[in-house]
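So, can you check what follows?
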Amino acid sequence: MVRPNRRTAVPRSYSMDLRVRVLADCDAGMAPKDAAAKYTVSPAWVRRLLQRRRETGETAPRPRRHGPRPLRETHADALRQAVAARPDDTLVELREALSLDVALSTLWQALDALGLSLKKSRSGRPSRTART
């Protein structure tokens, strides 16, 4: 299964060149909605750009905010070692062994991304309920 790249879903910031041209037109007396139509941008974006310049003096795009780094990056070695040492542990047992405060789905996604699996040993004897 191919997973979509989340980074491509986020639109890029408008260039400084476009920002300068929009602000120049607005400074020359053009209404924000007319400037938006001229440059095919949202009228709300033009209003926010004007507001930001008025309040802070900034016109450049702000740096992107990113969430926390994925568990597969921060705990990759610890996950590999824990699964190698105790492959029969459940996700709950693995989470407790590593003292992680994450959801089970987060832990599973990290294991899946690393190509690790927690599978019960087939060499053990079957449970009593399996025999009838």
